[in-house]
Specification:
Number of strands: 0
Helix content: over 70%
Number of domains: 2
Shape: elongated
Structural class: mainly alpha
Order of helices and strands: HHHHH
Largest sheet: none
């Protein structure tokens, strides 16, 4: 007995091909939106991310070498050595920042597109993109620096007396442990007040 595949009508075959094509084009449209959203995210937050990752990278050698300097360099040479280390640390920070900054946009698409495609629907991405492109969002983003500064200043003003009291307590305890009163950093208020203008 000879078996054969049933003959499909041209209409059924066309409908099947269209369904596959529509699914692929819908996926392509969703990926295009996810890519656009990732690019917008990189533009909005990329600089802050690069700065934060650079600060984190700088912290490791800074901590290690500060401790080594205190332990192995005589006090008379410490200022000169610190100045030279600061020059090298700035070179390290600048080179590290350039390397990180170059990867921020590239990594945004690689990391964010699959995440957005998995976690957000096409309609949700459309909504987010529409908001991010809206004049209200642009205006809101432009206020972020002023808003952050105003917020920080209120926190500084509200905690100034507590911070000053805590600095005095720490200085007193440190003086007992080390045996030498603390010297405030250049430009710092002698009473250890929190940064920010006094009102």
């Amino acid at each position: 007995m000879k078996t054969s595949f049933p003959k499909l009508s041209a209409t059924v075959l066309f409908v099947a091909l269209c369904a596959v094509s529509t699914g692929a084009s819908a996926q392509d449209a969703k990926k295009a939106m996810a890519t656009k959203l990732a690019q917008m995210q990189a533009k909005s937050d990329g600089a802050a991310l690069a700065n934060q990752l650079t600060a984190d990278a700088v912290q490791l050698p800074l901590s290690a070498w500060s401790q080594r300097l205190d332990e192995s360099v005589p006090p008379a040479r410490q200022k000169d050595v610190r100045d030279k280390l600061d020059v090298e640390l700035k070179k390290f920070a600048d080179n590290t920042h350039k390397a990180i900054e170059a990867q921020v946009s590239k990594a945004a698409e690689t990391a964010l597109v699959p995440l957005f495609m998995d976690k957000l629907s096409e309609d949700e991405m459309k909504t987010v993109i529409a908001y991010m492109e809206s004049p209200a969002a642009v205006k809101f983003q432009s206020l972020s620096g002023d808003a952050g500064n105003a917020w920080a200043q209120k926190v500084i003003d509200a905690t100034r007396s507590t911070v000053e009291a805590n600095v005095k307590s720490f200085d007193a305890a440190a003086t007992k442990i080390v045996g030498v009163p603390a010297t405030p950093p250049a430009g710092a208020p002698a009473n250890g007040a929190a940064s920010g203008s006094k009102k």
